[in-house]
Every structure is written in structure tokens, then in C-alpha cells.
Amino acid sequence: MEVIIESDDAACGVTVADVFDRAVRSGARVLGLATGSSPLSVYRELIRRHREEGLSFAAAQAFLLDEYVGLPKGHPQSYAHVIRTEFTDHVDVDPARVQGPDGWADDVFAAADRYDAMLRDEGPVDVQLLGIGVNGHIGFNEPGSSLGSRTRVTTLTEQTRRDNARFFDGIDEVPRHVITQGLGTISSARHLVLIATGGHKAEAVAAAVEGPLTASCPASVLQLHPHVTVVVDEAAAARLTNADFYRYARENRPR
Ligand code: GLP
């Protein structure tokens, strides 16, 4: 695992965009996208590079991590909608090749299984972008999620509903259920890139990177993966015991 500490959110966005830029220009075709506020600086930078530096996503396809269950179709906070407005509408990826779990299906349980099968068939994801919840969730895998879990319908904690209420007209509007890629599904990607910014993420980042491997911190599953990059700003790095070593290792990368 490589841990990169940057000064602020914008610098984190550039560093993560570098990872996607390099991957796409060297032939990566299957991208894993995340929603929430953490990836926005990445998308802003990728859109800029698309417009100004010829970075093309025309050959790419993209898969979302998760989706709410039960929102009205086209709801501005559905992740299918958010990813379009924040990223994919502004680059040249084929909209038909941007897919997410179907939170509107009559049978959402079957829809979750179908999505997992699609990821197995069309994957693996080359580069998967991840945020992290303050309780250590990735995707919508809340504490207690099996480290080997697959895409499924699951229930949000009240804390996550409160955290996400800022995107809605109050907590009552936030769905209780979601479809999320499981921790095992996410771990099938070739390269996992987690971005976290702000002091409110410091504890979750430290637990994920340096804490025990445990379902109580779902993001600790990253410790099992062979290729992980964690990009954090100074505030989110504040609880990392080995921060000085991560800086030293970055300055002294083997060539
Ligand atoms: C959300 C999403 C996650 C996201 C996380 C953090 O609920 N399902 O994919 O990483 O919570 O969100 P934010 O980046 O807005 O802090």
C-alpha cells in the first residue's frame, strides 16, 4: 500500500487524476467510479485534462460502486444521476457504457446479483476510485460487512444517513437501503485508489491503513489487496502513526 499525503483537497485530486490519466493513456478500459464529495476534485481535474490535454475516455467503460434503493427515477441524488452531472457528461465516455446497480428494479435482490455477474463478465475493473465514510465504510459496506461480500442489497447505518442528509432535504429523505458492490467485489479490481480529505476522516483513515484487519472497519480490507494507493490531505492524515515514513518513502521511491 502506498500512502500519499498532500497539502489539500485540490492537490489530492491532481494526484489521483494522475493515476487515472496514466492508466487510461496506457490502455486501461474499465474504470470504477465513486460518488460522494471526496472524488469531486478528481473529476474536476480529469475534465480539465479532457478539455485541455486530450485525455480521452472514448474507449472506456465505467462501473459505479453503489446506488440508493427506492429514490424516484431521475432523482438528483441518485448516484446514476450524480456521476453524470459531476463527471461523465463532461467527458467523451459513451453514456451507455456507464453502469451502476439498478436501485429501481422490481426485484432489487436479483438486480444486485446481475450487477455482480456483469462485473465478473466485463471486469476486472482496472482502476477503482474509493472514498471512505467516517465509520470506515467503502461503497456502502457498513461496519460488519463480510470482507468477502459481493454486490448485495444492504441497510445504511443511521450515522451514514445523517452524514448524507446534507445532500437531501433532511434525513427522512435519505433511503434506508442501497445496493453496493461488496468488499470482495471491490477487491477484484486491479488497482484501488482511495481519496480522503478533512479532519473528520482522520480516524477512519488511520483505522483503514494502520488498524487491525476487521469487518468493523470495512476499509481495512485494503490491507489485503496487492495494489492500493491511499491519497489524503494533511488533515485526513493527522492520526496516521507512520506519516513521516510515508513521506520518506515517497521521496525515496525505488526506481
Ligand atoms: C457515501 C458513499 C461512499 C463515499 C462515502 C464518503 O455514502 N456511498 O462511496 O465514499 O460515503 O462520502 P464523502 O466523500 O461525501 O465524504
Automatic annotation (TrEMBL):
Transmembrane stretches, start-end: none
This protein's pathway: Amino-sugar metabolism; N-acetylneuraminate degradation; D-fructose 6-phosphate from N-acetylneuraminate: step 5/5
Keywords: Carbohydrate metabolism, Hydrolase
Active site: 66, 135, 137, 142
One GO cellular component term: cytoplasm
EC number: 3.5.99.6
One GO MF term attached to the UniProt entry: identical protein binding
CDD domains: GlcN6P_deaminase
Gene3D superfamilies: 3.40.50.1360
The protein's name: Glucosamine-6-phosphate deaminase
Naturally occurring in which organism (per UniProt): Mycolicibacterium sediminis
